[in-house]
Amino acid sequence: MTLELSLDDKVALVTGAGSGMGRAVARELAAAGARVAVCDLDGEAAAGVATEIRSAGAAAMSVVMDVASRASVHAGFDEVASAWEEPGILVTCAGIIGTTRLGALTDEEWDRVLAVNLTGTFLCVQRAVEGIGSGEGRIVTIASDTGKRGGGRIATSHYAASKGGVLAFTRSVARELAGGSIRINSICPGPTDTPMHDGLGPELRKQVTNGIPMGRFARPQELAQAVVFLVSDAASYVYGETLSVDGGVLMD
Ligand SMILES: NC(=O)c1ccc[n+]([C@@H]2O[C@H](COP(=O)([O-])OP(=O)(O)OC[C@H]3O[C@@H](n4cnc5c(N)ncnc54)[C@H](O)[C@@H]3O)[C@@H](O)[C@H]2O)c1
Asked: What angle (nearest 5°) sits at the alpha carbon of residue 128, between those of residues 241 and 84?
């Protein structure tokens, strides 16, 4: 039996696809044959990634979307549905990091991180499930190892809380959708080389790297390939699962 990774002609919507992991996910899904809606708050970045994908001969459209806004999420999905069809694949990569320690954490920062990372995931998954209806759907939410073990040197409590929420939310939705035609899973990336870590100094980077059994940060494509696996028929019996792609950091 061959590994079935083809996504021929399926419509995939990727949030946070203007940068880092989301960009890599959009490119890999397109390489597997999907038509990809590249969604991001940063419209210019989204347009740039859609152009890259089209230059490689695949189908892509860019959509400006703020995942923290119900109106913006619905408008973005509607735009994709009118151009192509309702997305059958959703990958929620949009996220922001929070590095402020507990004592200095303001209500505003707490609320913003939770709004983008957790509420954003809820709004997109809810809208995707509604659009898929009784059709076939595959959803991957991007959480983080910090959602399992708590924040560490880089991300702090509000970020970890948002990602723990994504994991619990994803499992709960999997239970609610049991017996249906939609598969939903989560990926927990470990430290990955994306613009999210642009401000990391060499000393901190060295400390984080020392904690990774594989001895290096992930490349965004390594996360993206795990996403392609989870949304493909190769993962037809993988359901409600959390996959850490972290070079062995957790091994749980
Ligand atoms: N890089 C890592 O080490 C790492 C580790 C674990 C988890 N993650 C998670 O992976 C996901 C992708 O992160 P990344 O490293 O590629 O970061 P990134 O900063 O490179 O990309 C994040 C993208 O999300 C977009 N975005 C931010 N707020 C948005 C909003 N309200 N609506 C729509 N788009 C918005 C940004 O414009 C950006 O393009 C995030 O959820 C992040 O928390 C990253």
From this structure: 125
Measured CA to CA, the distance from residue 222 to residue 220 in angstroms comes to 5
CATH of the domain at 103: 3.40.50.720
DSSP label of 117: I
Q: Is position 250 within any domain?
A: no
pTM of the complete model beyond 0.90 = yes
Q: Which amino acid residue places its CA nearest to atom 25 of ligand 1?
A: 16
CA distance 116 to 196: 14
**Residue 112 domain boundaries:** 11-245
Total number of domains constituting the chain: 1
Q: Please report whether residue 114 resides in a domain.
A: yes
Q: Is residue 59 assigned to a domain?
A: yes
Q: Within 6 Å (CB) of ligand 1, which residues are found?
A: 15-16, 18-22, 40-42, 45, 65-68, 93-96, 116, 120, 142, 144, 189, 191-192, 194-197
Separation of alpha carbons 31 and 148, rounded Å: 31
Write down the residue that tokens 């910090």 correspond to: 146
Rounded-to-integer distance, Cα 192 and Cα 233, Å:
26
Residue 2 belongs to a domain: no
Q: What is the pLDDT of residues 120-153, one digit of tens each?
A: 999 999 999 999 999 999 999 999 999 999 997 7
Q: 159 catalytic, yes or no? A: yes
